[in-house]
Amino acid sequence: xxxxxxxxxxxxxxxxxxxxxxxxxxxxxxxxxxxxxxxxxxxxxxxxxxxxxxxxxxxxxxxxxxxxxxxxxxxxxxxxxxxxxxxxxxxxxxxxxxxxxxxxxxxxxxxxxxxxxxxxxxxxxxxxxxxxxxxxxxxxxxxxxxxxxxxxxxxx
Length: 156
Hints:
Structural class: mainly alpha
Order of helices and strands: HHH
Radius of gyration: 24 Å
């Protein structure tokens, strides 16, 4: 039995576990912004390289077909980076859902039933990750459309 003012081992463990869960949730949330920053940086540099190739291919005396392959190759690389970024964000969402479910289970026992509602995946339209994913997919689509309908035909 514990003395007044002290918590027992189980309560101490619950508190530490809850702190850990909150810290993990915070880390998962921050990771999304890190992944977005990496994608934006790499995409900007690579698309800049593709545009430089488009503007200078004739001056650099590169054959038209080789320059076009270079532009398409750069866009393929941006697409692979975008796909990997999307994968990391989706995995992060599943990780976040798991940690939140564990948090809810912990508060069910430690505080009271119904203290914290479990997340609803059908509310995905409220999550900022949804709009980050749409931005990434949209930007890659925009790059491919720009290359297909503007850059590559202008090189002919």
